[in-house]
Amino acid sequence: MKRIQSLLLLVALLLVNDTFGQGKTIITGKITNPLSDDITVITYPNPLIPQEKETTVELTGTTFKLEVPVTETTLAELVHGNEVVPVYLEPGYSLTLSFNGDKFLKTIKFEGKGTNENNYLAQYTRRFDEVEDYQVLPDNIKLNEKEFTEFLDYRKKDQLKNLEKYTGKNPVSDKFKAFALSEIDYSYANDKVSYPTLRQRVGASKNYVAPSTGFYSFLNELDLNKGLAISPAYVVFLRNYAAHLAKATGLTETDRLYYKKSYSLATEKLQGKARLLAQAHILKQSIEKGHIGYSEEMMNNYKTGGANPEVITYLENYLAANSKNALGSLAPDFKLKSIDGSEVALSDFRGKVVYLNFWQAGCGLCMIELPHVQALTKQLQGKNVGFVNISLDEDEEKWRKTVTTKQLQGTHLYLKGLDAELVKRYDLKDVPAYFLLDEEGRFLTTKARRPNDREAANDILRYLNQGQASTK
Length: 472
Description:
The chain is of the alpha+beta class. The chain folds into 4 domains: 6-125, Sandwich (Immunoglobulin-like), CATH 2.60.40; 131-228, no CATH class; 249-329, no CATH class; 335-470, Glutaredoxin, CATH 3.40.30.10. The protein contains 15 helices and 15 strands. Helix 8 (258-269) packs antiparallel against helix 9 (272-289) and helix 9 (272-289) runs antiparallel to helix 10 (292-302). The longest helix is centred in the N-terminal third of the chain and has 25 residues, at 145-169. It is elongated and about 85 Å long.
């Protein structure tokens, strides 16, 4: 089974207390055919902060005893060897379990306080998470809209029937039943809201057709603010729901306003803790992939919305740590020798979009792509674009000969070697490397399309048009 990992790390802190207190769960057990000499339970005391809390003990023969700190209802992971199963814990649980190491999930059985909840979870995982017929990928995503909805309806009906039948004979806590229902409801909702994107991603629909008018009507039946943060399905749904709202406006993830729009729509559509949960996730994505100016704007807004102070501190630190060469941050300036002997600075190109190319005359791939750089330069001649090419050759004469012999267009500058300080400042790992900067010298992208990509020119023109639109 896949580990729960980052989804719980991102959000559940919004709903839990800041400290562990005195709560704990006792887990004891016996393993037949152990896979290793120890067993571990992984919890997430600060779920937004990617630091796992591991409680590990060595086996005494084939038995073990674990004392796991638990102050709030949580979904943890039981790890033995390379095997992982989910474990549902509430403060005060005392569980005894047994399993065969060779068939971990298939043989695990629980006894004690929390037995019914965890036996259900193991049974549910075996039946619905491990059986391919119930999975969206790889085959069911190929179904058309009507067939896919029928598949999800059938699966949800089966899941609800299974829950009702199990709890009719094996009573569970109200908290657990709410968790189980959240998993069922939001796995359905998430798979449906992400259906169009998944079809495009896997190439299941070469000629994409937007969903029908009634396809998203199920959203009107959901109370989007009452899911549980310990439910991975709910967390994933909120992320994809926010993405759905942004894409419905015509934006894509490469658009500068994508994350800002996603954030504002989540703020408008959601309330309370659900809003904070979605905002935190969007903000983290924006810090990783979006425009730093908009990320800073969202961060300032998020701080005024009643979020947990520890969450705010983490996101502020994350923003600071990821500000170097982030989209929207100022590209490191330089002043270098040009082919005609004059000195040229990056700041000389303020007011123009800049396509920045780091290359070497001694690099085979660079030389293969060089004609495409020239073709792109000619194609956008007369536009408000500067093409700046920085050679990192050890041999300056080789660079000069290449530029003059091939009569290369654009601005050509020289910087000796890959060990130069500017190389480190641009975080270059290899050449060729391409960047796109806006009129203020800020990063539009640190991974611009290669010049032989037919969409490279369209990207630049789109950025130019966006800039013109924003000034109107």
